[in-house]
Amino acid sequence: MKRGRLRVYLGAAPGVGKTYAMLAEAHRRRARGTDVVVGYVETHGRPLTVERLAGLETVPRRTVEYRGTAFTELDTGAVIARRPLVVLVDELAHTNVPGSRHARRWQDVEEILDAGIDVISTVNVQHLESVNDVVEQITGVPQRETVPDEVVRRADQVELVDMTPEALRRRMAHGNVYAPEKIDAALGNYFRVGNLTALRELALLWLAGKVDDQLDRYRADHGIHGAWETRERVVVALTGGPEGDTLVRRAARVAAKSKGADLLAVHVLPGDGLTGTDPAHLVRQRALVEDLGGTYHQVVGDDIPTALLDFARGVNATQLVLGASRRGRAAQIFSRGVGVTTTALSGPIDVHLVTHEEVSKGRRARPARGGLTRWRRAAGFALAAALLPLLTLVLHHLQGEFSLPSDILLFLVVVIGVALVGGLYPALPTAVSGSLLLNFYFTPPLERFTISERENLLALVVYVVVAVVVSAVVDLNYRRSREAARTRTEAEVLSALAGGVLRGHSTPRDILDDLRRTFGLTAVTLLERGPEAAGTLGTHGDPDRWRIVSTAGGPPCTAPKAGETEIPLDEHLVLVLRGRTLRAEDRRVLEAFAAHAAVALRQQRLTAEAERARPLAEADRVRTALLNAVGHDLRTPLSSAKAAVDSLRSPDVTWIEEDRNELVDTAAESLTRLDRLVTDLLDLSRLQAGALGVASRPLAVEDVVPRALASLEHLDAAGVRVRISGGLPEVSADPALLQRVVANLVANAVRHNPPGEPVTVTASVHADRVELRVIDRGPGIPASERDAVFAPFQRLDDRDNTTGVGLGLALSRGLTEAMGGTLLPEETPGGGLTMVVTLRTGGSRDPEPRRSVLEGHGKPGGR
């Protein structure tokens, strides 16, 4: 029986419209005459979903009793007995009630598919097994119902039902997803913008991976080996030469012109593990590729053009960037080179040959491959000097018992033994000496350097050839083994260096210390020319003086000549090593360490310059704003108070009691406002100076909010609605500062809220954090201007100077951060602004949640 086809609607979160899309597809197929039934659809009481379900045949559900309660589940047997062409089964990851036919709903679906019935189902990305732990880290909510990824990947069709986080939150605010009493809690917990954005990205990435798998499978099934330009991918080939920087930048420009094409860099390592590349160049070029948004890869291949094209076809590349040949014209006569060969074999892949400064300068010679040690060569010569006379004496004594071929084989054994011990150099004279001894003592006519028979002459010539070849192979194998071991060691050292940089161990001192330990040195010192150069960028200094920038190990070197080895980095920097003289082949790794140290030094100095400049710029900005505030906003209440007092003191006017009281109230109100403004200015200055005292302790949010509301004068109790349930964990905060933050945020929200709309204050817990939200329905703030509202002396679109100098939000954020929390703005679904205060928990939940006094409106007791 032919297996049924599975179609899955994938969503990033509940409420995006998966079930609605599934029902719309069912109606479309039903209108075409297809036999479609509903096996299981969960409407969650959503009116639009219930309306869409009408008109479709539904297979009755199966009732299962569990612990005295009746549950309804998908009746798999009834669906198979009904044998429709298509059945709708919602919530693929659902866990069935114990006692059901299968433990999981996706197992029911598998049985229905095996019966030849097509299935349309739905699943959210958080229920996929592979991303389940990631979703829990993002949302803080564990997902206990999961479905194996392979079940969904095997689906014949997977369609993403997508919706932006803002649109989904608006749907929720309009009551299209959850009941009204659950909306605020959902928006403040699982359905936060950050959570929804991350879940949406997970869904898109997972689906993109499935699409790539489908494309690869299709190309493999149909024998398609050429690149399909479904997406531009630019591959740049790096040789490890100095021209690599030019190639990477050119490839990045090609990718940018192709509207965001992927950039991939590849370096081909020879199959024998030997390489003549400069590790310092590759390290720098890899960093450049990653800075430009690309990825770096290494492949192994004996034939470079074939390896490059195999990699390019494997990643479905559309363009390949190569450097023009560095070989001279004479060398190009005998071999076309990598660029020409790759172009001839590239097929549909476009190849760009880029010129550079190294063209026709010749390839850099590979580092000398070290042969056997002098001790082993000496041992080979000694072995030859001992074995040849001894073997000759023994065979001469046994002459007549062995034939000439046997004698030749025995001499060949001696030559191979010498080659194994001492390599090529002692084996060659051993082979020649052996041939002379064979000729003189064992080849007729005896004891003469003549050969009477051609067969004997051939045997001796073959003996010499075999001895030379075997000796050469042994020597070459040893050389390659040593070079391979050295290359492996270099790779491990460079990998450890790169790993330290990635882990953040990238200060010059860390890199120098790693270098000292790697090579067993006494001291490693980074010197810079000129006494003032260590503290500034771009200075030249005294050419005859050196300054220590960083050092590791014993007494530092004060000049380049004070060490055994020096590595110049540029005109002003030099790395000096002391402890032992290093070999020339070690210089490649040394240059890699030196390059990392130079980059780390520059980054350190740029960071220091930026840190020094930031307080100055901030202080200058605050100073300018403060002068403006003092010159304008502070003068307003001061002028009002002074005018009221001057009027009262005027001897020319006789004030009645009512006018006198009004002037006194005006003066008092102006002075109160002036006192509040000065207090805010002083607190802001203490925050910026780090001198504000914070006494954090565990406290309950539901105890702080009523005190904050009570401190607000002229607050309409009906204008603030508080929804804070009991049982929240205590937070670590300063009670006075937190009360002030809440009061500032509520006052700001009330000021911008439209008449008749209450400001809502809610609180919820997420992992080890408690989030306090102040929600208004005002005009809101564009995303591009949300950071600006926290700058001191800012009042966006506010010309009312009586409301203060614009310190409320700046001070609130500063106070929150001083307590170890954060204050961030969010868009209120349906319009408005939500201020979110996040604080660390400082206690545990109550064992029995108590009813909050804040489950009402406004101040305590108000409703």
TrEMBL record:
It is found in: Cell membrane; Membrane. It is a multi-pass membrane protein. Pfam families: DUF4118 (PF13493), HATPase_c (PF02518), HisKA (PF00512), KdpD (PF02702), Usp (PF00582). Keywords: ATP-binding, Kinase, Membrane, Nucleotide-binding, Phosphoprotein, Transferase, Transmembrane, Transmembrane helix, Two-component regulatory system. It comes from the Bacteria. It is an enzyme of class 2 (transferase). Its EC number is 2.7.13.3. PROSITE patterns: HIS_KIN. Residues 629-843 form the Histidine kinase domain. Its main location: membrane. This is histidine kinase. It comes from Actinomadura coerulea.
